[in-house]
Amino acid sequence: MKFLLFLFLVIAANGCTQTDVQTIEYTEITRGSYYTITATESSITVVKNRDASDPLKVPMKASDWEELTDLLSDIELASIPSLDVPSKAHQFDGAALTNIKVLTLDEEIVSPTFDDNNPPSRLKPIIDKLTELANAAK
User: How far apart, in whole angstroms, are the C-alpha atoms of residue 134 and residue 36?
Assistant: First the structure.
């Protein structure tokens, strides 16, 4: 019985795992523009307008998905909504409103809104990788 309790506590303490992540979505919005990168295990989709016409969708390489989920595993997913944002220029049209959303098997985790050119430091490696994949898809 003690072993089962210990096992349960270890699993609960670890939270979401790489395999729980289903989708990672990066979105930038201003009054006149819209840009989103959506990554799943099977594809990466780039949309450059609000009506989602003409999306660019390419297959996701297994190694790229593994790298993205590895980068996410460096962050406690539950801490993402409470990350501190380094600047707030988006609050007065000084930068695009930007966020990251992570969809797991059980929940949707959304970061606080941040400036497109100044993300929370914990999210920067993930954003850099998503941007790299989106640029390669063009």
Answer: 9
Decide: 115 and 133 in contact? Cβ < 8 Å: no
pTM beyond cutoff 0.90: no
Q: Which two tokens stand for residue 117?
A: 């050119």
Query: How confident is the model over 78-124, as pLDDT tens digits?
Result: 999 999 998 887 877 778 999 999 999 999 999 999 988 899 999 99
Cβ-contact 87, 98 below 8 angstroms: no
CB contact at 8 A, 87 and 118: yes
CA distances from 89 to 26, 48, 92, 99, 117 (A): 18, 22, 6, 14, 10
What is the distance between the alpha carbons of residues 30 and 42, in angstroms, rounded to a whole number? 29
What distance in Å separates the CA atoms of residue 31 and residue 6, rounded to the nearest whole number? 51
Report CA-CA distances (Å) from 84 to 7, 52, 53, 118: 33, 30, 34, 11
Q: Please name each of the domains of the chain with its CATH number.
A: 16-137 (3.30.1560)
